Predict the structure.
Amino acid sequence: MSVRSAFRQKALPACKAFACMTFTGCPDRNRTGLIFQEGKKRRMEFHMRFHILAFFLGFLMDLLIGDPQGFPHPVRLIGALIAKTQERLGGTDPEKSPKEQLRLGKYLVGIVLSVTFLTAFAALFAAYWLHPAAGLIVEAVMTWQILAAKCLKVESMKVYRFLEKGKLEEA
C-alpha cells in the first residue's frame, strides 16, 4: 500500500470528520439541541461562534488570571520536548559539520512542530467530538495558555522600572 493510498483511507476521513464537527457542522449530527437552518453557511456561522467565544473567554482568563506559577504551561512542555528530542538526535555536538547540524536542526523543528500540532489537534478533535461545549472549554483553556498579555505586562514593567532607575544590568 502506498503512502498516498494509506493517507486517503485513514487520514482523510478523520480530517473530514473534524471539519464536519467543528467548522461546517453535520446535518445528521446535532449535539447542541439547536435546529440548524439549511445551508452550509449558516452551520459554519454557528460553529464559528464557538471559536470566537472560546477566543474571547481565553483572552478574558488571561487578563484576569494571567499565567499561574507552577501550572503546567505548554511552553515548558514544548521546551522539554525540544531538549529530549535534541538529546536523542545527538545534541549540539561541535564536532559535527555545519551541514549535519543544519539537517538535525530541520529534523528537530519538524518533530517538535508535528508533535505540538498533533497534540493540539487531537485534544480539540476529541473535545468537539464529545460535545461543542466541551470543545469550547478546551479551546478557551488552550487560548488562555497561548496568550500571555498579563504576564508580558508584568515582566516588561519590571524591566521598565530598572531602566527608569538607570540600572541597565539588572534590567
